[in-house]
Amino acid sequence: MWSVLHGPPHPLSVNWTLEDTLTRMLTADPARREKPALLTDEGTISFQELDTRTRQLARGVRARLRAASLSAPRATPLVGVCMARGPAMVEFLFAVLRAGGAYLPLDPTYPPARLAHILAEAAPSLIVAGPEHESLVRHLAPRGPCWVFDPRAPLDLEGEDPERPESSSPPAGERPFAVLYTSGSTGQPRGVWLPHRAAQNRFQWMWRAFPFAEGEVCCFKTPLGFVDSIWELFGALLRGVPVAIAPDGLEKQPERLLAFAARHGVSRLIVVPSLLRLLLPQLSPPPGDSGVPVPKLRMWTCSGEALPSSLAEAFLARRPGDVLLNLYGSTEIMGDVTAHVCRAGEDPVPIGRPIDNTTLELLDETGAPVKVGERGILHVRGANLSLGHLGSGGSSAWAEEGQRYDTGDLGRMVRDPIDGGWMLLHEGRRDRQVKLLGNRFELAELERVLLRCEGVLAAVALVREDAEGPSLLGFVQPREPGAVTLEALRAACEAELPPHARPVLALIEHLPLLPNGKLDRQRLLALGATAAAPGEDPFLAAWRAVLPRAPLEEDTDFFQAGGTSLLAVDLVRRLREAGKPVSLEQFYAAPSLAALRRGSSRQAPPGALTVRPLEAARDALGTAAVDLLADRFDEIDPLKQALGATRAELHALFASYLESCVKEGLSFVAIDGRGELVGCVVAADLSRVHTHAREGRFVVAPRLEPLDAVLSAITDPWCHQPSEPGPGEWVYVLLLAATGQREVARVARELESTVMGAARARGYRGVVTVNTHALTQQLCEELGYRTEASLDVREFVHAGARPFAQVPEDGAELRLHVLRCQ
């Protein structure tokens, strides 16, 4: 028996298109028009608003395409899209399709050199850009037609051509709707034409195999240039399912992503295994909360990388009732061509069986099929195939006039132990393409960038796999000692490679060879694991590779300098490769260069941390808690320092807070593994806090009155919209402090999470807090709080004066954060 698998046959329409499907759905279900289509933290847009807006914008797109006066117009004009992720982007995508065009994502976070290559090869007929990206687009395409669209400005399309272009000779389903760029085998990115037919097949399979239920919500969080974004957006909307649009960059911040998903009731999420690994710790209930985090999120789709069995097992143990769907594919085959619902105990995790209207073949190097059980090269046929690569030259991956695609992946057929049917295991690659954080990358592209640097004789790119995932390594042999520097190599990589493909670089005197004269790749990998480069500071090298634009001062905080959870994993991995093992827990406790140097050779601090409720204000624990609060605020609070208030005045105020609020059971302390008090949070029912203040229970010294006034100035407008909150509605965090340089972030997070859990358990609508410190401001953002108001305290006037005028700029912003639990 030969290794061939056929997906179930299901009919497709030859004239199916994305834009017409939206129209037909709204015509068949008029009531759907008034229901939400797009969800954001700022509000919602109905299907009616989306439909009306895209029709208006399509007229503008069509008119500008005709005005371009192309000498040889394409049957399907290409429109570049350089916009922030948001409703305006979605509206423009549908507008481009309704104008008969296809969209070309232009990610503004990519290096200008990469974008310039894409624009030169794809030659879009029009570029649509947001105002914030106008200068970039004008620089890259100074002569190209550009529509700078400000979604905040009134839409004026009077006189625009309302006609739709005449249909071309091929069936509508064979027209392209997008061109997505991937890393090519030549070392240059290659554009892939994606037809409506491939989207139809992918969508209809998913709609049939995993139908949406009433009330479901999907999440659009993948950058537009990656194929998963197509299902996230169109796969849901075309079925009448609302889509929550995550702000740019949220996909790199696991805690904030989950908080966003919880706020909007997201029921399905696509994640690469690298991201799932980071989300996993957040899927356990916080202390004091017996509920399940993001309870409506029940379907998790993994794609983009191999799914390790250990990760799947850990996920299923934490979310036993959820579906973990493992998909396999690439851009050339519409993202996904096989599927498997993961089960406990599978090792390795299969990639499953072909989806509808597709055929998978395992062939040898001569193109002949291999026998069942043998490893072969995976080839794909069927309705999921793209139209090929953009530009001349074609690709050796396509055969039989584009009817068969060679994925370059290796696979093997095995029996399913449950039903006895055949399914596929993924067994690596036969070429040099790799997956980095879910993004395909060709190692030749890194080598090309390095070889173009002056003074480079030879360059080799490799990837090493470990428990934390793949690491990209670049080895460079200079023409002579000192001919090239690591700084020059890093600058070249930053200028030309996408953010996910920034390598760990090493200078070596000679490339190691095997006795037969071939490159000794294993020895290179060993070299990469022991040192970044001769004589280079490994801490500085790792920091600079991950945050190339951040300051290099020893005490700079990683997260305040722009670091994220994903970048933290990258930094820790690079340090481990350089022989400086640091755990994530150590790093979070000490996120600076100086602390990393001190802590890399030490054991992690005691891991035990106990959070317990405060039961009394005047017992030993309550007294110690007030002392800790007074000490920390006396030491670090810039507002207190500007007022010249004393520690005794702070102590009296904080003691009165705790005395009035402790009986509500919403205040907690944190105790470390040595039994020492390391943190405290004082919180209470917001309505009762207002009552206590009116009754004069809080001891506010005259010098602290401006502080009380500025807090009221930022909270009162929110509290009285539309009316003052009543008892049982909101929890207000009055104070939070943590001590211990290496533990402060962790302790603060645990305390804040405990209050959130208590608020949810008691049915509160949410939690409200005011923050001045950058750490707690960032912590609130990561935990899903929204910034409802901000205030520059230097401009605040009290009793005819500006009491906080001398506060340093980095401590002058007061933020009102609100987390909604329901």
UniProtKB/TrEMBL annotation:
Gene3D superfamilies: 3.30.300.30, 3.40.630.30, ACP-like, N-terminal domain of ligase-like. InterPro entries: ACP-like_sf (IPR036736), Acyl_CoA_acyltransferase (IPR016181), AMP-bd_C (IPR025110), AMP-bd_C_sf (IPR045851), AMP-binding_CS (IPR020845), AMP-dep_synth/lig_dom (IPR000873), ANL_N_sf (IPR042099), PP-bd_ACP (IPR009081). The keyword Phosphoprotein applies. Coiled coil: none annotated. It comes from the Bacteria. Residues 167-176 have a biased composition (Low complexity). Keywords: Phosphopantetheine, Phosphoprotein. Residues 157-180 are annotated as: Disordered. It holds the Pfam family PP-binding. Residues 530-604 form the Carrier domain. The keyword Metal-binding does not apply. This is Carrier domain-containing protein. It comes from Cystobacter ferrugineus.
